[in-house]
Specification:
By secondary structure, this protein is of the alpha+beta class. The chain contains eight helices and four strands, in the order ααααααβαβββα. The termini are far apart.
Length: 194
């Protein structure tokens, strides 16, 4: 997890510690990811949780009714704490920070992969192997690929992990070749003008 003292990171770190201590970290991650999808897909749910005109008791009651028996008790209580402390607006960031910290603690590297066509099993496995070898010294023992197809790339792949982007797309390579050719042409024109 990116180190920081933001409210979201503080809450996420506390939840991580508790979830790992209780041995329910995978279940908590699964539940939080589902809640994150709900908050993203249903903006009214997020608005409900952050609206100050709705009392905390009403919000807690809805959390119990909607999530009771569907998510772990730790997650249900986490939602109530966020509401009670007027931190519900931080939920999406806290969820993202939890998931990031979870993968970090598990020694997993999450890599966003954009390609012009869906990767086949062989390509996927080769990519995972290369990334595992590349990041082994950083304590990474597994790689999770989040794949997305973008035909505009023409070929190759674009990888993103954290703030780092590796652009091996054909479109990017063609753009670089074009820039080099334009630079040579400009230099050639300068020579002939003299």
């Amino acid at each position: 997890m990116a180190k920081g003292d933001s409210v979201a990171h503080v809450y996420a770190e506390a939840l991580l510690a508790l979830a790992f201590e209780k041995g329910v970290h995978a279940e908590v991650k699964r539940d939080l990811e589902e809640i994150g999808r709900i908050l993203e897909d249903e903006p009214a749910a997020h608005v409900f949780l952050v609206t100050p005109k709705i009392g905390k008791a009403a919000k807690r009651e809805v959390i119990d009714r909607v999530f009771g028996g569907r998510v772990t008790e730790i997650v249900q209580n986490f939602l109530k704490v966020m509401v009670d402390k007027d931190r519900a607006a931080e939920l999406p960031r806290a969820i993202a920070a939890f998931v990031s910290g979870y993968h970090e603690r598990q020694g997993e590297l999450v890599v966003s992969v954009k390609s012009s066509h869906p990767l086949d099993d062989d390509e996927r496995e080769k990519l995972r192997d290369v990334l595992k070898k590349r990041f082994r010294k950083a304590g990474i023992n597994d790689v999770i690929l989040e794949e997305r197809t973008e035909p505009a790339l023409l070929g190759g792949v674009v990888l993103r992990t954290g703030d780092t982007v590796y652009d091996g797309s054909l479109r990017s390579r063609l753009g670089a070749i074009r820039e080099r050719m334009l630079a040579r042409r400009l230099r050639a024109e300068e020579v002939y003008e003299d």
